Amino acid sequence: xxxxxxxxxVASWLVGIYLVRYATSHAKAYDDGKVQRxxxxxxxxxxxxxxxxxxxxxxxxxAFVPHTHTFFDAELFFKTMAVVLPVFLIGLAxxxxxxxxxxxxxxxxxLSAGLAVWLLDLTVPRLGLP
Length: 130
Known about the structure:
The protein is mainly alpha-helical and 130 residues long. It has helices at residues 2-22, 48-62, 74-97, 102-120. α1 (2-22) runs antiparallel to α2 (48-62) and α3 packs antiparallel against α4 (102-120). The termini are far apart. The mean pLDDT is 81.
């Protein structure tokens, strides 16, 4: 499991370095007056791509690591990726174009939440409040 985490970290780190160094052209479109702009200098807002690359690298690495003493569950991993995908894609589209409406982002966030309930059975059956 440590090997998979290390592969994910390295892949995410390398993609992150690449993005910070070479993918700054769209970052210049965020002028200082925009709400999204809180970094100093031209920093790309597509850091989620590096995290996604780490997840994909972890899934690929898991095929080569014996799972006899780990708790890695491929089915759970891919279901989780399916849940995250709508929100990831709409966030990426917003970061690249700056033209995605709040309504569209909210709808895809609700879709992801629905997928989490359906695919992962994530519910709160009881709060324990009187």
